[in-house]
């Protein structure tokens, strides 16, 4: 995989934490599944509805980034520390799966596993 593509995927992953919901909508496959620590498992439009009502993260740091590619799909794995104003940092392990669709990379899976403080 080209370094430029890898860099772009990591940038897109970061922007999905902190960017607006319109950016998220462009990068999210309608078939995407997300599993969150509160027990919610959401798909496609459910994800977009839940995000439009939720405050966006102000900043995220990613550490220990790993990448695996198989049959054109790319899995990103990393530790994240996200911040909201006036709240404790949120630390978690994440995985996301991205696939190319019509020349655009789209997320088809995301999972967050919180880490104890």
From TrEMBL:
InterPro entries: DUF4440, NTF2-like_dom_sf. SUPFAM superfamilies: NTF2-like (SSF54427). Gene3D superfamilies: 3.10.450.50. It comes from the Bacteria. Residues 16-107 form the DUF4440 domain. It holds the Pfam family DUF4440. Transmembrane segments: none annotated. This is DUF4440 domain-containing protein.
